[in-house]
Amino acid sequence: MDAQWLLWTALALAAGAIEIFTLSLVFAMIAGGALAGAVVAAVTGNQIAAVIAFAVSTGALLLIARPPLLRYSRSITTGTTTGVAALVGHPAEVLVPVTPRSGQIKLAGEIWTARTAGTGNPLEIGSVVYVTRIEGATAVVSPLPPDPAALPGGATPTDRPES
């Protein structure tokens, strides 16, 4: 069959599409093997050689390439803070004076209910505050960051919040 390489290419595309939904890197390795089968089929026209190339390259990819790729993909996602927890340490601008009971801030472009953890003076409109924790839908803020080294992106206490 002259177009046998097209069948191998179709298998590679199908396996690649399935990989998009599974993210297990198994179907990616199958797609790589199918591409090897497509190349052998196109060059030699030998169906048995294409099947052998597919089997050998898929096996090699599964045994050699997949484990380090899995370790890498896990390492880049481990420790990534998401959701409201990612807002802790961020600067915000006071919109309504913030007291231990009430207030409003602009945080990451959104308006949040806020309060202070202490009993000091109210935080005035326009001042920059830092989120120390999130309690439900309320940001607990302080006038200075609890740990400047923990601020995301190397922000400093003089940085203005994002509008």
Question: How would you summarize the topology of this molecule?
Answer:
Layout: H1 4-22, H2 26-44, H3 47-77, E1 91-96, E2 104-107, E3 110-116, E4 128-135, E5 138-142
Parallel strand pairs: 3-5
Antiparallel strand pairs: 1-2, 1-4, 2-3, 4-5
Please give a structural write-up:
- The chain is α+β, with helices and mostly antiparallel strands and 163 residues long.
- It folds into 2 domains: 4-77, no CATH class; 83-154, OB fold (Dihydrolipoamide Acetyltransferase, E2P), CATH 2.40.50.140.
- It contains 3 helices and 5 strands, in the order αααβββββ.
- It has helices spanning 4-22, 26-44, 47-77, and strands at residues 91-96, 104-107, 110-116, 128-135, 138-142.
- A hairpin with a 2-residue loop joins strand 2 and strand 3.
- Helix 1 runs antiparallel to helix 2.
- The radius of gyration is 28 Å and the shape is rod-shaped.
- Residues 153-160 have low confidence and may be disordered.
N-to-C terminal Cα separation, in Å?
A: 63 Å
What overall form do the CA principal axes indicate? rod-shaped
Percent helix: 40-55%
The total strand number stands at: 5
Task: Provide a count of the helices.
Answer: 3
Strand % is 15-25%
Gyration radius from CA atoms, angstroms: 28 Å
Spans of 5+ residues with little confidence (pLDDT < 50)? 153-160
Strand order of the largest sheet: 1-2-3-5-4
- Topology as H/E string? HHHEEEEE
Total of domains: 2
**Pairing-aware structural class of the strands and helices?**
alpha+beta
Main sheet: strands, sense, barrel: 5 strands, mixed, barrel
Look at the structure and give the mean pLDDT: 86
